[in-house]
Amino acid sequence: MTTTTASAQPGERTVGKSSPGTARGPRRRPGRIRRIGLPYLLLLPALLLELLVHLVPMVIGIVMSFKELTQFYIRDWTTAPWTGLDNFTMSVDFDAPVGEALLHSFLVTCAFTILSVGLCWLIGTAAAICMQDAFRGRGLLRAIFLVPYALPVYAAVITWAFMFQHDNGLVNHVLHDQLGLTDKPSFWLIGDNSFVALLVVSVWKGWPFAFLIVMAGLQNIPKELYEAAALDGAGVWQQIRRITLPSLRPVNQVLVLVLFLWTFNDFNTPFVLFGKAAPEAADLISIHIYQSSFVTWNFGTGSAMSVLLLLFLLLVTGVYLFVTSRATRTPRAPRKHEERRTADV
């Protein structure tokens, strides 16, 4: 039986089965393209909403920071005269009243943020470690610990404001009348004690979030590590220092950053606790910017302060992520007993 093969004419394309060794060119499947584009299509409404809610107002605020926008141009802010960098120069001139007040608020905010974030992380981590082992009533205690985080901010802060009242507040009643720790009832919402009151409220409503995140991170640590450490004679503190804290490093990296950003930008807590005019000891930068914008009606200066705050937070966030990520990637140097064990092998 003979097989005839037709020769291809010029301009004609020969169609035939390719041999197994012949390489095929990449083909794009329409179904694969649709699967790749589907996530972006689902994210499109969220991206548009993010653009309208955050990005557009942010761009408008940056434009306002370059204008002399006062109460005389409220009806049409686009007609306000262009001032260039004058608002920024006035804000960072620490010898002038505006810059000096902004610097004071910045330092108060830094001290408040460091103390609040540190205490929230410490209390939340300690509570999560204590709740790690199973015991009777653990579920109820976990639910009680999360109550401050579940309460609305306004309801919680208003309750604390009543408790901090001078004459009939619960705090003075316990500290002065019941325990006798103070000579006379203290003023908590004015004066230097206002910083302590603000710190107490911030820590009270912030540490349950740290407790929740750390508790979730502890679930990923194998129990075999603790059992092996206990067999080797390691105590509770050594297990926490050698196993728990190193294992929680990725969780703490995100947790500390989120707590820092939330606390540094916190506006609801001081505004509800003190009102429009916060005491000098508790004058956070968020309240200071609000006063510069909506009390003195100088929106240009307030916008410039907001832009400076945004740049500061972006800088701190970038440096923090760079340092923590580099520390995570850096290999740990072998210790002496490990080197000795390797040499014996």
What does this structure look like?
With 345 residues, this protein is mostly helical. It has a domain at 108-326: MetI-like fold, CATH 1.10.3720.10. Helices cover 66% and strands 0% of the residues. The chain has helices at 30-64, 86-91, 97-130, 138-145, 147-150, 153-163, 170-178, 193-218, 223-231, 236-247, 249-264, 268-274, 285-295, 299-329, 336-344. The longest helix has 35 residues, at 30-64. Residues 1-19 and 333-345 have low confidence and may be disordered.
Pick out its properties.
345 residues; globular; MetI-like fold; mainly alpha
Q: So, the CATH homologous superfamily of the domain at 108-326?
A: MetI-like
CATH topology of the domain at 108-326: MetI-like fold
Taking pLDDT < 50 over at least 5 consecutive residues as the criterion, the unreliable ranges are 1-19, 333-345
Q: Separation of termini? A: 73 Å
| Alpha plus pi helix count | 15
The whole-angstrom Rg is 31 Å
> Would you report the number of β strands?
0
CATH architecture of the domain at 108-326: Orthogonal Bundle
